[in-house]
Amino acid sequence: MRRAAAFTALLLAVLAGALCGYWASSTGSASPSTSLTCGVKASCGAGEVAVLRMSSASNAHAGTPGGSSYGNAVCCGGVAGLGNSCSGTYDTVVTLSAADNAHAASDGGYSTQACLSESNQNGVVDCTYGAICPTDYVCLATISGSTNAHVAACDGTWPYPTKVCCQASCVGDVECDCMSDAFEGGHACLNAAVPDALGNADGDKIAVLGSQYDFKNFGEMFASTDPCVANPGATSDTDGDAFSDGAESFLGTDPVGACPDGPSDDAWPPDIDRDTRVSILDVLLFKPVMSSAVCDARYNRRFDFTGDGNVSILDVLLYKPVLGASCTNP
Fold first, then answer.
1. Burial of 154 from C-beta contacts in 10 A (0-12 / 13-18 / 19+)
2. Listed residue (6, 2, 26, 4) closest to 313, CA to CA
3. How far apart are CA 328 and CA 330, in angstroms?
4. Which residues contact 312 (CB under 8 A, 6 or more apart)?
């Protein structure tokens, strides 16, 4: 038994080191402003919005998403609440001479706007132009000049020298900021701050280490004293799998199933591959989402066992006491 425990600990340590290496060599945890991604596609995917339409990927005329039927679109995603409305929180990507078959301008000389917007409260959108996009800005398209210009893709065969660069972030909204800033060190607080008396004396929305909001293991998730969890099931455990109904609601697992009935039944939180056993294979599934945070397109709260709005090595280390365990349904 001691050898098995030692081997398990060693395996976790090696895996943690490997994942930390991946973490360090990856692009890192994207902040809201850097998670915007854009590219020219035939059609936008789920979670993406068409900002501009183009007749080709190079030397192209342009049109607005609603005014043109061109077969190429500048599609942007990665930030909650993106849109192409020229109202609310938005900035003009380029102005166009018409809604279709148009030339573009960066000087605002045309009356038709192609816009990038962000619908979340206190969202931020900013677009600029230059030979190189500033840090945290993403290239949407390139243009041949400041006016009467053709457009081209940023990474196409013949991009133009002037890049159209935009930055977008979602802050201050339930979907983004209250699930990042207001996670406050370990609970899914969607609309309130940690009271000062409960471990947030400096008011920075980060729970003090060692406070009741500094969760360190699965069983501590969604404590009954958590004022941010209104769900009466926060401390009940209907299926008896040692994860509260509130915790399973947050993770997206089945609160009334203690063990997977099949490969599509996500019932037991640590059993990510749904084979009724917690193994190193479950831990390896963390790799694609490692170092991601809320507002990063890679973030998946199914892996956020600490409930802090980030998927990190801390979530992986929580696997140590359950590695090798199995489950059965009553």
1. buried
2. 26
3. 6
4. 23, 290, 291, 306
| 158 and 90 co-located in one domain | yes
Residue 193 tokens read as 């701050």
> Could you read off the pLDDT of 39-63 as tens digits, one per residue?
999 999 877 999 999 999 999 999 9
Within a domain: 215: yes
- State pLDDT tens for residues 150-206: 999 998 789 999 999 999 876 543 333 333 333 333 333 333 333 443 444 444 333
Taking CA atoms, 222 is separated from 48, 90, 115, 183, 210, in Å, by 33, 37, 41, 12, 15
Which range of 75-89, 199-213, 224-238, 246-260 scores highest in mean pLDDT? It is: 75-89
152 is in which domain, residue-wise? 33-169
Q: Which of 169, 202, 224 is the last residue of a domain?
A: 169
Residue with tokens 């080709």: 56
